[in-house]
Amino acid sequence: MGDILIPSLMVGDCSRTLCLRVSRLWEFLDPQDDSRLLHTDLVLLDEEGNSIHAQIYPPLCQQFSALLDEGRIYNLKYFLVRKANRFYKPVENCNMISFTKWTTVEVILQIPPAFLVCTYNLTPIDQLQPRVDYKEYFTDVLGVVSVISQVSSVRTRGRQAEVMKRTVTISNARDTGPTVDVVLWGERATTFPAEQVHRDSGSSPQIIIFVGTLVRSYADNVSLSGGSSCKWYINEPVPEVNALRASAETNHHPVIWDQGKAAAESTVIAVPEHKKLKDIKYLHPFENKKKEWLVIVKVLKIDSSWWYNACKKCLRTTKPHGDTYKCTNISCDNIGSPTPRGTRYPSPLKTILTPPSLSSLDEWRSASLKKMWTPSSRLIHPVSFQEKLQIYWKSLSSGMLASLKAQLFIAVFPSK
Asked: How far apart are CA 256 and CA 146, in angstroms?
């Protein structure tokens, strides 16, 4: 067994031995490139059930992937303890573990009987709404499986390639109680044992714990998104599952196969259609609500420069003054090195244009442009981009009035 337990860990190098079970293990890939591994994540448990998050970064991922298996117990030594990540923590612990090239992993063949298999912090289904887009922790839920969809292939806005998707609906076992859809993505969608759950539901309710999910909302409907961090425990012998099973058995119904759910949802998240400005300029706003198009434009001319040398005190323009710069503001008159302000864009800039309500043409002319992609150069200071393109969009405002819910995706390529 180990020398210490998880609560005894302190920030810094640790040469003591920890005896831990790998409760969860997953790989976090680049959302834009599935072939690029960003880091490997683990949830580790000690013999008393204490938990901690651990991460392995390249190039060490390949080294330890051959040594670690989910569910097995290891002696861990020579690792780094640091403060936990600010966002997307899988367990409640202010610290986390980082593997180093000196970290040693020794497998324990004789598993102590008291070692827990899983850890979770359940949120009731009827309390998910306040956690929509909550980033600090992943969300864990418990429910009875009521509906399962087939695996479908969809293409989302964030990816150019298609991704697999499956929806599992769970409830709190009461007919009048709330339900929630758990949307599984990629490998999680294909490995979910849907056939077995459907078959076993004929004789008993299937109680499932989903861990590592994110709460999302679309069209006022709350759902859970299960990516690589998501894992499930079906009919796990824990008190919460036993209690829910007791209430579900009195009104049990087999799981329903929903053939149309995935197909219907895929149309909602489909990639916007490519259009030209002339195609959308005079579209009827009332007949094209909630529609989206992808438009590529090129900025041919900008009236003012993208950046300027600013005074460090008052941020007004400076002018050369010998081998340094002098502020043009008479009340400031500061002399010294300036601070470049503005944004330089050596690369294409993708933006999203969200039109305002139909009642205000002035609001449309100064429509908000939100940056969706970070240029390769450093962002020194945010620029009022709508002012830069106001003249360009003014020509469109007379015919292209869209509803509040419509969105126009635009890729802007600055002229050389």
From this structure: 6
